Amino acid sequence: MKNNLIIDVEDRLVQYLSDTYAGRVHDKRIGDDEAYTFPPCGLFQETGFQGYKPDHVDTYQPKKKPRGKELTEEDKAENTMRASIRILVEHVIAGVKRCRIVKEVFRNTKARFSDQVMEISCGLHNFRATLRYVPLK
Prior knowledge:
Structural class: alpha+beta
Largest sheet: 2 strands, antiparallel
């Protein structure tokens, strides 16, 4: 089972949860199927979204090393900054996965039950996060 999450790094909350897709589905394909709409903002993406560019959004991805060359010091510094943001995102995903039913093999075959389980675990994470974190604003 696979979902895409859109996370607000400042508040450390899950802002959007995609539908649940069974099997091996690429992240970009889920993004295309969901047809996300964003206000004008900056969007930090992982490399699984290579080529995904929503309208009115500045996208940021880690720079790849060119073949046979090295990254410049500026590109390395940008990648380090993006990696530090990615760590915050991974911490939110780990908070969602505290509900073990999300990270273990899911054997329930009821229709739409896996979506409900993921929604509940994201909601529990957001509830814990609003009590724990002070926003960085």
